[in-house]
Amino acid sequence: MNEDILKQCEDMIAKGSSSFYQAFQGLPSPRREAVYVIYAFCRMIDDSVDEPDESPYSIYELRHYFSNLDDAKGHFIWPALRWLFASFPQLDPGPFLRQMEGQLTDLVQTSYNTMAELEHYCYLVAGTVGEMLLPVLRNESNADVVASGIALGKGMQIVNIIRDVGEDSRRGRRYIPLELMVRHGYTEHALLHGEVNTSFISMIHELKQTAMIWFEKGLENVHSYPPSSGLAVELAAAFYGSILEAVEENHYDVFSRRAIVNDERKRSMYRNIATKYARVGVTEGVL
């Protein structure tokens, strides 16, 4: 495999998500490079919908070329994906296609009425990422492990939704289900005007609890991962979960401020999590 191609995938994750990059960079090769390829393709899928003018492909073109991967040319992602599936033959293309289905949802559905609807969306756009990563992070899985991987992805998507409430609102999207807004007495008018009040905070708290339940389930089987993979998964979960703390520190202002976890806090989390992995020597080279 051309190292320059894999380096371009690494550059995409380093630029697009420092949290994921820092969490997974300690994996051994080729697991590490495989994570980079998966991230790069998922980033392209997301950008094709959110930033279509900047994307080299439409979501429909990505789906077409992925479905005809052997013949796809014109971008480094295609040989990278061919390398990925050749290196990890247990990988199923299904989650990749469902990921694209989820992103296509954003083109036709801009608001949600129920938590059930939102959970299905979270599965499509994020739970599928857990399904993609499992064959890369471990040699074998079972139904419980897959369910945990999906749950962790869904929890991370809820974090995204909380962090990006303001940005999504400006794009004309509302991921917070209407039933949740009604339950907490928060109106669409308030959302459009970026109002942070007690109703908004209580609503975000409920969403946060949903995320934490999914995070807990997502880490249930982490002890069964290879140590280096377990460390990476726990780091990613901790980094992402701490975004919720940053939201709280910003007084729940997700309309004019972006919740960011700084490197100092990440290093602190890394030290805490790495302690239990240190005895098997998998902490070197991270952060």
UniProtKB/TrEMBL annotation:
Keywords assigned by UniProt? Carotenoid biosynthesis, Transferase
Q: Which InterPro entries match?
A: Isoprenoid_synthase_dom_sf (IPR008949), Squ/phyt_synthse (IPR002060), Squalene/phytoene_synthase_CS (IPR019845), Trans_IPPS_bact-type (IPR044843), Trans_IPPS_HH (IPR033904)
Q: Name one GO biological process term.
A: carotenoid biosynthetic process
For the keyword Transferase, the answer is yes
Q: Which molecular function terms from Gene Ontology are attached?
A: geranylgeranyl diphosphate synthase activity; squalene synthase [NAD(P)H] activity
**Protein name, entry field:** Phytoene synthase
Show the SUPFAM superfamilies listed in the entry: Terpenoid synthases
Pathway listed = Carotenoid biosynthesis
Q: Which organism is it from?
A: Paenibacillus pini JCM 16418
